[in-house]
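Example record

The entry below shows one chain as it appears in the dataset: sequence first, then structure tokens.
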Amino acid sequence: MSKYLYILCLWMALSIASCNNDYPSGAEYENYQFTNLDQKAGTWKPILLISNDQISIPAPEPTTSEAYLSELKTMKTTLASASSNAAYWGCNPINRWNEIARDLAAKYNLTPAPNDDGTYPSPSASNPGVYPYFPFAHPPYASRAFAYLSAAQFDGLIATWHYKYKYNRPAVHITDPSIVPVFHASDLPSYPSDGAVIAAISREILGAMFPLEKEFLKIKAEEMQKSLISSGINVSSDIIAGDSLGKGVAKVYLKRAVSDGMALAQTNRQVSDSIANAALARFGWKWINQESPVRPVGVTPRFGKVKMWNVPNVESVRPGPPPVPGSDAFNVAVEELKSIAKNSTKEQRKIANWWSDGLGTYTPPGHWNRFATDFIIEYKMNPIRSARVFAYLNMAIQDAGISCWDSKYYYHYPRPIQLMEGFKTSLGTPNFPSYTSGHSTFSAAAATVLSYLFPNEKAKCDKWATEASESRIYGGIHFRFDCEAGLEAGKKIGEYAIQKALVDGAD
């Protein structure tokens, strides 16, 4: 992609965002009645917060106070204009904010194009509005954005539930039966507003991850918080308290993000070459980018050193070495790729394309977030139960990415197109080493966590993970041993997340 085409693509995306208040568009989420309210969720164990009341908010005014009665009056005057915005956000705005995150990941998933002199520029977090625009939302970056967003939302809602049942301000429709909420009436206490907490956390976390979108995210958060009043769910003081609580939780998470090692994940050429040469000395091979002009530094060579969420250390899940090129095991994998390239079926091509998740998409982590969203709606989960799903899913997915990138750059194993003379892929080749497969590692971790959270869906999740892994073989991007090692590592990483979930008090 040329620099000018890159700019055109991003300009078009920016234009769509600025012109369409409902960006990202999509089906309105179903207005469903929650299976349960998880009244004890305020006692669940948070991920980063030290305690459920670490971020303090004041007690609310009594529902008989003049201030509260004035808020009810304001709500009644706006209730008639509720429906459109409320329908967009749905009864469970966790789902919509996850969709927004996925669309932002897709929007910024564009590889920087080469300069006229054949060199490659890199996005700069300190100057995001200068080409190439920051971030380049490749799979590692997307996995981290999803993890911070989801884990912060979960902690924020645990704190929210704690205060809801501590102060026990009744739902608006209970205080004033003349007010009929747009959505199914819920007896969940209204203070602080869980919707406002979600909006504040999402605005702050996504704004840090996608700095050029801060104004857009601010508009969306304000739009959502206003809709909570006009849909008969929360009065202003509920929302003010929720916004304050959400900002406090986001601050805790952003403090972790500053020091988690991501700032050092993308290296200069000197460091990148030293990593490659260390692998060459250790194993006798190194991956070489096959682009023209050659891109001298792969994607985030030090992502494997980023702080993990649930795995004690990256070495504990590092797979053993891949087959030596020219060995019997290697030759078997080579022959399989040659056979598929020559005799690929329509179904294999379909699978390869369906799971490609390349540039301009929300990446493999986003793919699994979409599956989780569908499950959440199918099982009619409330916001805090939904946040728990996304939190454990995305922490596992980021840990899987960290493990995979550690393996990629520790072993620095060449891609099939480098080791197989004249071989061509059907999907293009990613700009990082081959072993292990990212799709396989991400997908096995995600499938393992979702199978725990939705046990009736285990067969479906396992099938998807296998299919995602196989897709990389069908596309000629990976050897089978890349994929098998990735699946094994991903499953172990998913189990680490499950062990944390088992003791958080939710089950």
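Notes for this example: Residues 1-27 have pLDDT under 50 and may be disordered. The two ends are 49 Å apart (CA to CA).
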